[in-house]
Amino acid sequence: MTQSDPSSGREMRANPLDRVTERLIRHVAGHSSRRSLLGRLGAWATFGALVPVLPVERVSAATPTKAAPSPKAPSPFAAKAQTTDPTACNYWRYCAIDGFLCASCGGGIHSCPPGTRPSPTSWIGTCFNPGDGQSYLVAYRDCCGQDACSQPACLGTDGDQPSYRPQANNDIIWCFGTGALVYNCSTSVIVGNAS
User: Fold this and answer.
1) Which neighbouring-strand residues pair with 187?
2) 123 is known as an active-site residue
3) Average pLDDT over the chain, rounded to whole?
4) What is the pLDDT of residues 85-104, one digit of tens each?
5) Three-class SS string for 40-97?
6) Which intervals hold domain Methylamine/Aralkylamine dehydrogenase light chain C-terminal (predicted)?
7) Are 96 and 125 in contact (CB under 8 A)?
8) Where do the structural domains in the chain lie, given as residue ranges?
9) N or C: less crowded end of the chain, CB within 10 Å?
10) How far apart (Å, rounded) are the C-alpha atoms in residues 2 and 13?
11) Residue 3 contacts residue 11 (beta carbons within 8 Å)
12) DSSP bridge pairs for 124
């Protein structure tokens, strides 16, 4: 089959691929309008944009997460410490306490019982909290002014220092400056993070 080129006046031979392509295009053009073609192209473009947000299980792309290892307790007290009962001697804040717990004597973890006064000085300890895996600086303050509480005494020795290092010695009665040197119980106040 030959075609003529109107610009040059010569005849050209048609390639079989060109003929098939021309017939396909003419068939599509005869059975559809420009608007429907643009509408379909728009629909496919919209669908193509929505494909990435479809809920697809991406197991192969997910990296397996390993549970963080629980931090190792730094002392024998910390290995047995608990975080729920502040009236028990193994409560995590009591790692360096020596005496009666104000939480068991009518006060709180960090508040003195009625009728007693907190000492202006304290000794310190560093206690490990097994609940969050952090170590905290804890100040222990004696409550003074009444006879000792009748509860059993607790003794925590983490970081206990000799008497010549009084800031970390839990054997000293710290009621200096309260007006009465009568010891009642001890409180435990978190001062800050020790990490």
Assistant:
1) 141
2) yes
3) 78
4) 999 999 999 988 888 999 99
5) HHHHHHHHHHHHHHCCCCCCCCCCCCCCCCCCCCCCHHHHHCECCCCCCCCEHHHCCC
6) 82-192
7) yes
8) 10-48, 77-193
9) N
10) 5
11) yes
12) 139
Q: Write out the two tokens for 162.
A: 């000799």
Residue linked to tokens 């003074």: 144
Amino acid symbol at 64? P
pLDDT of residue 83: 92
**Helix (H) / strand (E) containing 128:** strand 123-129
Residue with tokens 């990435």: 52
How far CA 7 is from CA of 14, 18, 19, in Å, comes to 16, 19, 20
Q: Which among 98, 142, 158, 174 is annotated as catalytic?
A: 142
Residues 6+ apart with CB under 8 A from 70: 133
Predicted confidence pLDDT, tens digits, the chain (195 residues): 555 555 555 555 678 888 998 898 888 777 777 677 777 778 777 777 766 665 655 555 555 566 555 667 788 888 899 999 999 999 999 988 888 999 998 999 989 999 999 988 888 888 899 988 899 999 889 899 888 888 888 887 776 555 555 555 556 677 877 788 888 999 999 998 886
From 92, 98, 123, 158, active-site residue: 123
Catalytic: 142? yes
Four-residue CA torsion sign, 93, 113, 185, 174: positive
